[in-house]
Structures are given as C-alpha cells and as structure tokens.
UniProtKB/TrEMBL annotation:
GO biological process, one term: visual perception
Protein name in UniProt: Beta/gamma crystallin 'Greek key' domain-containing protein
Organism: Tetraodon nigroviridis
GO MF, one example: structural constituent of eye lens
Residue ranges constituting the Beta/gamma crystallin 'Greek key' domain according to the UniProt record: 4-42, 43-84, 90-130, 131-168
Biological role stated in the UniProt entry: Crystallins are the dominant structural components of the vertebrate eye lens.
Assigned protein family: Belongs to the beta/gamma-crystallin family.
Length: 177
C-alpha cells in the first residue's frame, strides 16, 4: 500500500515553518500557528479549514498548492485526512433526505449530474459501503466538495458543510495517486 506524504507551511508559497505528516491530523495548531500552503509529495489528502475534519474541504494529490485561498478555504488549513488507496469495487447508497429517507439510489460508478441521472434534486444522507468518494456541490464535479469514506452519514450538516447541495459524485480511484 502506498503511503502519502504532505508538507504544510505557515505562509503562502511554501515559506515559514513547516510540518510533515503521512497520516490524519485533526488539529494543526499543535504544529503550526497557521497553514497557508502545502506540498503533496505522494498520495492523496483532504484538507479542511476547520479542526476535526470540518468545514470547507479540498482534495489534494501530488503537487504544490501555494495559496490556501485558491483551494476555496475561508480560513487557513486547520486539519487534514490521508485518503488510503482503494482497490476493489465502489458502492454507495444516496438518499434524498436526512436519516436515509426519501428516494434512494445505489451507485457503483461516477455520477456527473444527479438531477439528470436520477431526477433527484437533493441528496442529504448516504451509506458508503465500498471505496472512497468525493461529492460535489455542482454538476460535472465542480464547486465545493465533501470526502466520504466507508460509513453511514445520516446528515451532511454533521460534517460542518453548511448549505451545500450535492449534485455530482466521483470515486477516488488509483488514477488519483
């Protein structure tokens, strides 16, 4: 299994003190007073603008991210989660309403427009059985995003992503690494 490695920097353009990790970090304030840029040496990560994996999220893979504002962060990066590589099938059930109610559909592949494909105008809860997924605010994988790993998500509001409607979803595949 490939391990990820990410380096965070206090200032934009990889300046200031740095902190390196290959795992999840729920609160970066223990290592840096702020985080305004990062460099991904290997693997894939989700970075968050609030502690404990909450708030605005941004998917990063191998490369350089010189300014947190270009990632859609309202504040500096405050936590990160390493996304393990998944080989095998992908399966997720999406529900129209919270607590797994309303219309339900099962996905095993990407969906670039939930409204066109399922005639569903909203998705407020889901169950991820297999794989790791990114859910997007707009069709065609654009806008704010949410990372989901296997588990039950009774309400997306619990993830600290306020007012986000889900309109497309994509599997995090080997090609992301």
């Amino acid at each position: 299994m490939t391990m990820g490695k990410i380096i965070f920097y206090e200032d934009r353009n990889f300046q200031g003190r740095s902190y390196e990790t290959s795992s999840d970090c729920a609160d970066m304030s223990s290592y840096l007073s702020r985080c305004h840029s990062c460099r991904v040496e290997s693997g894939c990560f989700m970075v968050y603008d609030r502690t404990n994996y909450m708030g605005n999220q941004f998917f990063v893979r191998r490369g350089e991210y010189s300014d947190y504002q270009h990632m859609g962060m309202s504040d500096c990066i405050r936590s990160c989660r390493m996304i393990p590589m998944h080989r095998g099938q992908f399966r997720m059930r999406i529900y129209e309403r919270e607590n797994f109610s309303g219309q339900m559909h099962e996905l095993t592949d990407d969906c670039d427009n939930m409204l066109d494909r399922y005639r569903m105008s909203d998705c407020m809860s889901c169950q991820v059985m297999d794989g790791h997924w990114l859910l997007y605010e707009q069709p065609h994988f654009r806008g704010r995003m949410m990372y989901l790993r296997p588990g039950e998500y009774r309400s997306f509001r619990d993830l600290g992503v306020n007012g986000m409607r889900v309109m497309s979803m994509r599997r995090i595949m080997d090609s992301c690494y």
